[in-house]
From TrEMBL:
The keyword ATP-binding applies. It is an enzyme of class 3 (hydrolase). It comes from Selaginella moellendorffii (Spikemoss). This is RNA helicase. Its EC number is 3.6.4.13. GO terms for cellular component: nucleolus; spliceosomal complex. It comes from the Eukaryota. Gene3D superfamilies: 1.20.120.1080, P-loop containing nucleotide triphosphate hydrolases. Residues 1-31 are annotated as: Disordered.
């Protein structure tokens, strides 16, 4: 055995010399790629325009080099004088990480030094950092500590066409910051240069918003992409995607395939389906290498999608709409597009937000197919009929118009912007949504009767990088001796799919889940998984062997190791935040009643009681809901529960459910479950229902 192993080792040693050759070849090829980017010839013009204009809108097709090159142009042109940084915001964490990694490599510097990134729960920057990629949400958080963002000489709002809620708030905020900085220092000194970058031609809106800012277009380059539609509509999208990609693989020329799926779960199922089919590929076909890319994937794995497949292998990239415009993966020649996307939707009347799978817009479908024609002619397979395409909406509605604004309103308040309704939004969110969020924050105790941030609760809530409901839950958890349990629950709820349930091993996976099960609900079950995992890690210490042990533990218990590791990481980070505001971190041990009482006190807005027909009715807004099949409380009849999530599919489901005693509600949330005065018509929103009154009264005062 030993003898048969050694040639392998030798090979590795010998590989050192070719390796450095490889590295220099890679550097050369990167240099060539950069020279060939459409943005390269526009370099001087762009630098000149940034000198001349404090605000600039730059439009260029995806892949033209905006995100990776522009910050480097600006750095070399001296826009990072006196230690000021060039900040570039991205709507998605994946983009922030992968682009920073790439740019660090291009500049030959270590990631986190001159080039770094900052995303929620992960900071890879240092005092040396000059180019900083970050999520739009992170820059918004930075503004809380440094309202005039003095660390930055230039801020680039990238992917502005995505119109995430954070990007929209930033647009309004930065407009104000720019004006204030000019006011303070005079127009010549320390102006804030603002650049809005977008991949779509619809630039006028941005220019108008910034007082007719100059628009610069970068000439793009796109090869023809042949589009195919299906003859009938597909019932099983995963199956249709699988068949299509296998067909491409066996019948078409080499070239990588990009498949657009809606989320981690779908991507993981598809990954398994492909692996099941691999042994049955016709002899002589290329090998297949599957690489997933989605938001929750750990950073080091996201970067893998960009590494070219070895010779004789076709790369199949399974991506969410991240790969639509945010990241450009080289080598793609075929796109499989089921035409669906997971999208946020918010019903302010019910006050609950849900993630639903919806058809993409025409603009998105075009972006997706465009990914096949970046390096040569390509093909795009739309898994829907041509008729369906014609009926798609032209563009996606900005997120600010369809999401819960509680978190954003809390941040605006923390930034001292009290008149949220009068804030300079590029597109105003529905008034009702703002009023509801004010009401929500007031009920949580984050706002005073005058709709000002309350001290200390509101201030502390704004400091925690979490949704207000979770922030509040953590703040009160010490009173119930269960900060550790709440930290675990919140961390576990911040990641997707802790449990790993292969289709063909459902029984085994269910049996494994029994070990962690609590008859009282999902939250306690999640806490038990986290406890068992940390016990396992502590038991085995660090090192390679223990890594294997931990992996084995995860496989045996049907636990998704990636998700769980990330949850542990998030736990540590929020624990740090809690300690920073001097709150004790206590544990209730086995006294889970305290924990459940804390859940009731925190999530009282999401309480539901059983009805005779086995469904539940939410107490805050009278909605009929059912317990989701993924919940361990599914099929059980419990008098009263609290939940975290409302998902809409064929009906309204609640997820992450825990049993509570209904009498706890008036005891723990008397301000909400005490008697409320009914009022007739509201002078602000003209609604006749009394549920709007609170929000309106807050705006009036
Ligand atoms: O921002 P824009 O869409 O205009 O382009 P970019 O993200 O700057 O990408 C420019 C080029 O860099 C593309 O050809 C990408 O394939 C390449 N790139 C890469 O190879 N690896 C990355 N992590 C990011 C970009
Ligand atoms: Mg870009």
């Amino acid at each position: 055995m030993a003898a048969s192993k050694s040639p392998g080792r030798f090979k590795q040693r010998n590989a050192i010399a070719p390796h450095s050759q490889q590295a220099s070849a890679r550097r050369k090829s990167i240099e060539e790629q950069r020279r060939a980017l459409p943005i390269t010839i526009a370099r001087q013009k762009l630098v000149d325009e940034v000198h001349k204009n404090d605000t600039l809108v730059i439009i260029g097709e995806t892949g033209s080099g905006k995100t990776t090159q522009l910050p480097q142009f600006l750095l070399r042109a001296g826009f990072s004088k006196r230690g000021k940084m060039i900040g570039i915001t991205q709507p998605r964490r994946v983009a922030a990480v992968t682009v920073a990694t790439r740019v660090a490599e291009e500049m030959g510097s270590e990631l986190g030094r001159e080039v770094g990134y900052s995303i929620r729960f992960e900071d890879a920057t240092s005092d040396l950092t000059r180019i900083k990629y970050m999520t739009d949400g992170m820059l918004l958080r930075e503004a809380l500590l440094d309202p005039l963002l003095r660390k930055y000489g230039v801020i680039v709002i990238d992917e502005a066409h995505e119109r995430t809620v954070h990007t929209d708030v930033l647009l309004g905020l930065l407009k104000g910051v720019q004006a204030k900085r000019t006011e303070e220092h005079g127009p010549k000194k320390e102006p804030l240069k603002l650049i809005v970058m977008s991949a779509t031609l619809d630039a006028q809106g941005f220019s108008t918003f910034f007082n007719n800012a100059k628009i610069v277009y970068i000439q793009g380059r796109q090869f023809p992409v042949e589009i195919f539609y299906t003859f009938t509509s597909e019932a099983d999208i995963l199956d249709a995607s699988l068949i299509t990609l296998l067909q491409i693989h066996t019948e078409e020329e080499p070239g990588d395939i990009l498949v657009f799926l809606t989320g981690q779960e779908e991507i993981e199922s598809m990954d398994r389906l492909i692996h099941d089919r691999l042994p049955r590929l016709p002899p002589g076909s290329l090998k297949i290498q599957v690489v997933p890319i989605y938001a929750a994937l750990p950073s080091e794995q996201q970067v893998k999608a960009f590494i070219p497949a070895p010779p004789g292998t076709r790369k199949v990239i399974l991506a969410t709409n991240i790969a639509e415009t945010s990241v450009t993966i080289p080598g793609i020649r075929y796109v499989v597009d089921p035409g669906l996307v997971k999208s946020r939707s918010y019903n302010p009347r019910i006050g609950l937000e849900s993630l639903i799978v919806v058809p993409v817009s025409k603009a998105q479908a075009l972006q997706r197919s465009g990914r096949a024609g970046r390096e040569g002619p390509g093909k795009c397979y739309r898994l829907y009929m041509e008729e369906t395409f014609k009926q798609l909406e032209n563009a996606t509605v900005p997120e600010i118009k369809r999401c819960n604004l509680a978190s954003v309103v809390l941040q605006l308040k923390a930034l001292g912007i009290d008149d949220v309704l009068g804030f300079d939004f590029m597109d105003k969110p529905p008034k009702m949504a703002i009023l509801k969020s004010l009401e929500h924050l007031y009920i949580l105790g984050a706002l005073t009767d005058e709709a000002k941030l309350s001290d200390p609760v509101g201030i502390q809530m704004a400091r925690l990088p979490l949704e207000p409901l979770y922030a509040k839950a953590l703040l009160i958890s010490a009173n119930f001796n269960c900060s550790k349990e709440m930290l675990s629950a919140v961390a576990m709820l911040s990641v997707e799919s802790i449990f790993f349930v292969p289709k063909d091993k459902k029984k085994e996976a269910d049996a494994a889940k029994q070990r962690f099960l609590s008859g009282d609900g999902d939250h306690i079950t999640l806490v038990s998984v986290m406890r068992a995992f940390t016990d396992e890690v502590n038991k085995s210490g660090g090192g390679v062997v223990s890594k294997k042990q931990i992996l084995r533990w995860c496989i045996e218990n049907y636990i998704n190791m990636r998700s769980l590791k990330r949850a542990v990481d998030i736990y540590r980070q929020i624990e740090g935040c809690i300690q920073a505001i001097n709150l004790p971190v206590l544990s209730c041990g086995e006294d889970f009643t305290s924990f459940r009482r804390c859940l009731a006190a925190a999530f009282f807005l999401n309480a539901a009681c059983l009805q005779q027909d086995g469904t539940y009715r939410t107490l805050a807004n009278n909605q009929v809901v059912s317990v989701h099949p993924s919940s361990i409380m599914h099929g059980k009849k419990l008098d009263c529960v609290v939940f975290n999530e409302l998902v809409k599919t064929n009906k309204q489901f609640i997820r992450n459910v825990t049993r509570i005693d209904s009498l706890w509600l008036p005891e723990l949330a008397p301000h909400f479950y005490g008697t409320r005065d009914a009022v007739s018509a509201c002078p602000v929103c003209e609604s006749s229902s009394d549920d709007m009154i609170l929000g309106c009264r807050l705006v009036q005062t």
